[in-house]
Design brief:
By secondary structure, the protein is an all-beta fold. The protein contains two helices and 30 strands. β21 and β22 form a beta hairpin. The protein is globular, with a radius of gyration of 22 Å.
């Protein structure tokens, strides 16, 4: 969870007169969560953020369920998702439940023609390939390969890519992303045993105030529909803000792995939590150092979680035939484990260079046609020696 931060010009107290050089008042906006009971930021606009000129016809973009009761280990070839020019059209939902939507995207161009706001979900965009800048009313937030770009719901943004070959893993969460509770003290500070700390988060840097009047389209996503709104003022007309609610980046490369004498379970890799699922980061690390240690993971029955693993880089000691961008789904109720031969092969190895993002959900995941279109249909037989 981000800590207190401020950028630009703000008054010395909340909810008091804050005037422009010409004597007019800046427009104060409270961006708050859980009513007025959780984290928030106070934002100061040149003009009220309420000047709507037109609302268009909504478009349905909700994921369509194709396989609701999955009881099979599956593997998707994520890089088979075809690139698309438009940022929103490039998003292909592959799995979802009532807590989240998991999508893959390969946008070729920057989001410049319109602005976007997800009013229903917080977004985590993992940058597998690509780099650029996230623009919002909170400022400029550069990102690069390996970054988790965290965008709270309700944030209007644009994305500028400096690359044309971009690969993204996107998780939309219907509850806030947080750091794991066991790593936080009662004041919210990350503790000494946490695998990362506040220094590893990157906040928005440069605040650019746009004083522009015209036609500004904002596509707002709400409950599976996108509503085209047209505003009179540029959404980024902010002179300053402060608080706990803003986009930020965390690089998977800044996650410091926890290791032990014998193999430790996946919770040691946990990076974020939300209601109904967790996000884990598998990063290069030293292997277990007990003289009889087996670095490869043991067989495991997921009895109350679906496990999704997105393979980013490197070789995996427990898997064969891993490709960049591959996604495995191991559903609750049946065991999974290392592929034949990988257990013995892992013994004596000192380290691994693997890089992956894991998503464990506590409700079953539903697959879409976009997932089945890129599936390796024989994956479930890969444990047969």
């Amino acid at each position: 969870m981000p800590h207190y931060f401020k950028l630009g010009q703000i008054p010395h107290k909340r909810h008091i007169q804050f005037r422009k050089p010409d004597g007019g008042l800046y427009a104060e906006e409270l961006v708050s969560t859980e009513g007025f009971s959780s984290i928030y930021s106070l934002v100061y606009h040149l003009y009220p953020p309420t000047e709507v000129l037109k609302i268009g016809t909504p478009v349905n973009v909700a994921p369509i369920p194709v396989l609701e009761n999955n009881m099979q280990h599956r593997s998707l070839k994520g890089f088979q998702v075809k690139p698309a020019s438009d940022f929103l059209e490039s998003r292909k939902p592959v799995m979802f439940n009532s807590d989240l939507i998991i999508s893959l995207a390969a946008p070729e161009k920057s989001l410049t023609e319109y602005f976007y706001k997800n009013a229903s979900a917080d977004e985590m965009i993992f940058i597998h390939d690509g780099e650029g800048i996230l623009h919002s009313m909170f400022g400029e937030l550069p990102f690069k390969q390996g970054d988790y770009v965290m965008i709270p719901r309700g944030v209007i943004y644009k994305i500028s890519f400096t690359t044309s070959s971009n690969r993204l893993l996107i998780v939309e969460s219907f509850s806030p992303f947080e750091t794991p509770r066991r790593y936080r003290n009662p004041f919210g500070q990350l503790e000494e045993h946490s695998p990362f700390c506040e220094r590893d988060f990157r906040e928005p840097s440069e605040l650019i105030t746009h004083d522009e009047t015209g036609i500004f389209e904002v596509k707002i996503k709400k409950r599976g529909q996108i509503f085209p709104y047209t505003y009179k003022r540029h959404p980024f007309d902010v002179i300053g803000w402060d608080g706990f609610y803003y986009p930020y980046c965390f690089s998977i490369h800044n996650f410091e792995p926890l290791t032990g004498r014998v193999h430790l379970p996946p919770p040691i890799h946990q990076t974020f939590q939300a209601a109904g699922f967790v996000i884990c980061s598998f990063v290069p690390r030293m292997y277990d150092y007990h003289p009889l240690a087996i670095p490869a993971p043991y067989n495991h029955s997921n009895l109350d979680s679906d496990e999704v693993l997105y393979y980013a880089e490197g070789e995996f000691m427990s898997r064969k035939h891993v490709e960049r961008g591959m996604i495995s789904l191991h559903p609750m109720g049946i065991p999974h484990g290392p592929h034949p031969g990988t257990v013995e092969k892992s013994i004596g190895k000192l380290s691994t260079g693997e890089l992956a993002v894991m998503i464990d959900t506590f409700k079953p995941l539903i697959l879409t046609q976009q997932a089945l279109d890129i599936e390796d249909p024989d994956y479930f037989t890969s444990w047969v020696d």
